[in-house]
Amino acid sequence: MRRTSLITALGVTGMLLSTQTLASETIQMGKSLFEEAKCMACHTNRPFNGDNSRVSDFKSLSTMVEACNTNLGVGWFPEEVEAVAHYLNHHYYKFPVSKQ
Fold it and tell me: pLDDT class for 98, splitting at 50, 70, 90?
């Protein structure tokens, strides 16, 4: 019984660590993309999460990042848009992110 519990605990710990590593890598990729695209050229005088923000949850944040991507011809793939949204969420918004 104890051996099974230990194996289960180690497995769960490994999954959590790999999820955290993946999340960290995604956030770092999002930060790099955000900086390379010079997003702060437009956003420097506008706070991301101020009272007049049009973003109210992670889904609307992803939608806004995709709007910038499309309207400005940035050329990000969908997974890159999501990485930038995760970076912005981690750094500014702190919305809960549901797994889809």
Answer: confident
Asked, for residue 19, whether it belongs to a domain, the answer is yes
Band of the pLDDT at 43, cuts 50, 70, 90?
A: confident
- pTM (predicted TM-score): 0.75
Domain count, the chain: 1
Q: Is residue 43 part of a domain?
A: yes
Query: What string of DSSP letters covers the chain?
Result: -HHHHHHHHHHHHHHHHHHHHHHHHHHHHHHHHHHHTTTHHHHTTS-TTSTT-S--SHHHHHHHHHHHHHHTT----HHHHHHHHHHHIIIII-------
Range of the domain at 61: 2-93
